[in-house]
């Protein structure tokens, strides 16, 4: 039963990766809305909808958490986005994204510090393959040149990666905190993002119905429901499989952009697809073959 629950939680967590794959498409459709305002709108909408659901279901008591839990959740969500936005403002986007996307690898490595988790060679091999695919995808197979003038941006990208990987792994230590509490983290992230918008950005609202629809789609899925399903996955699922599989998000995002005419299918995308897929399968080897073994053994058990 415990293994079944772990598998189910892992699958739920993987749905977050699928939703994050739509970030590029919906982000492109949202027009010229500046990052912190977009963050405010998305987290504000998703947090408010979640709060309404908690009120309607009589579960608002689940928001009564210690101050440390509120600080942890808010700093995790807001901190990651704050440093990511700082990175892409102060460094070339390719290099900033490349550094930021070390967080899945860090999740796998940091998971070795969790009680009951064992880091094996195939976890590392699978995740490194995923990282190699992500590098190829982000750079387009071309060289990258890190500049000394962009050190602030690079440092912010490293920090954003550390924030999200640490938040994901440490969430496992807060397994008693209900996933419903993420609604409060979203609302606090919206508030802090709004303050950053007022201080740092010029206000540009979505200019057309399609742009508003894209913002609402972002709020509903990649910047909304995804954080709730990810919380379930990292708390009760196979966190190493989730870390390795997270590299499929930029790949699926690229394929969606290509499908909707925002990009072209190239050799680098094809190779990245193979590397990330093979890496995810290798990292999930234990889970895949354990499930197959159980499905074969189940009928035999019935006959006995």
Keywords:
globular, mainly alpha, 304 residues, 75% helix
Radius of gyration, in Å, reads: 20 Å
Sequence of secondary-structure elements: HHHHHHHHHHHHHH
Please tell me the overall pLDDT: 89
Shape: globular
Strand content: under 5%
- Helix content class: over 70%
Our measurement of the CA-to-CA distance between the termini, rounded to an integer number of angstroms, reads 20 Å
Helix and strand content put the structural class at mainly alpha
Contiguous runs where pLDDT drops below 50 for at least 5 residues = none
Number of helices: 14
Q: Please provide the count of β strands.
A: 0
Biggest pleated sheet = none
At a glance:
The chain has 304 residues and is mostly helical.
Commentary on this structure:
The structure is a single chain. With 304 residues, the protein is mostly helical. It is 75% helix and 0% strand. It has helices at 2-20, 23-29, 35-56, 67-90, 93-100, 103-110, 121-139, 151-170, 182-200, 209-236, 239-245, 248-259, 267-283, 285-303. Helix 6 (103-110) runs antiparallel to helix 11. The longest helix is centred in the C-terminal third of the chain and has 28 residues, at 209-236. It is globular, with a radius of gyration of 20 Å.
Summarize the topology.
Layout: H1 2-20, H2 23-29, H3 35-56, H4 67-90, H5 93-100, H6 103-110, H7 121-139, H8 151-170, H9 182-200, H10 209-236, H11 239-245, H12 248-259, H13 267-283, H14 285-303
């Amino acid at each position: 039963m415990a293994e079944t629950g772990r598998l189910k939680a892992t699958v739920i967590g993987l749905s977050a990766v699928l939703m994050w794959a739509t970030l590029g498409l919906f982000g492109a459709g949202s027009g010229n809305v500046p990052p912190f305002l977009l963050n405010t709108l998305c987290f504000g909408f998703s947090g408010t909808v979640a709060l309404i659901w908690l009120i309607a279901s009589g579960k608002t008591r689940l928001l009564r958490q210690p101050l440390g839990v509120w600080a942890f959740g808010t700093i995790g969500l807001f901190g990651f986005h704050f440093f990511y936005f700082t990175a892409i403002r102060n460094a070339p986007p390719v290099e900033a994204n490349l550094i930021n996307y070390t967080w899945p690898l860090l999740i796998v490595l940091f998971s070795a510090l969790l009680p009951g988790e064992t880091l094996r060679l195939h976890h590392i091999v699978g995740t490194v393959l995923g990282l190699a695919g992500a590098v190829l995808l982000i750079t387009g197979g071309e060289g990258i040149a890190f500049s000394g003038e962009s050190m602030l941006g690079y440092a912010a990208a490293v920090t954003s990666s550390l924030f999200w990987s640490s938040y994901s792994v440490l969430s496992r230590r807060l397994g008693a905190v209900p996933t419903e509490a993420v609604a409060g983290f979203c609302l606090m992230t919206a508030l802090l993002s709004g303050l950053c918008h007022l201080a740092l950005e010029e206000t540009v609202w979505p200019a057309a119905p399609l742009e508003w629809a894209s913002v609402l789609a972002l709020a509903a899925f990649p910047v909304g429901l995804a954080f709730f399903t990810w919380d379930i996955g990292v708390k009760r699922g196979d966190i190493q499989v989730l870390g390795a599989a997270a590299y499929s998000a930029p790949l699926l995002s690229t394929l969606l952009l290509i499908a909707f005419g925002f990009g072209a299918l190239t050799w680098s995308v094809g190779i990245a697809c193979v590397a990330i897929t093979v890496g995810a399968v290798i990292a999930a080897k234990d889970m895949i073959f354990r499930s197959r073994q159980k499905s074969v053994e189940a009928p035999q058990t019935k006959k006995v």
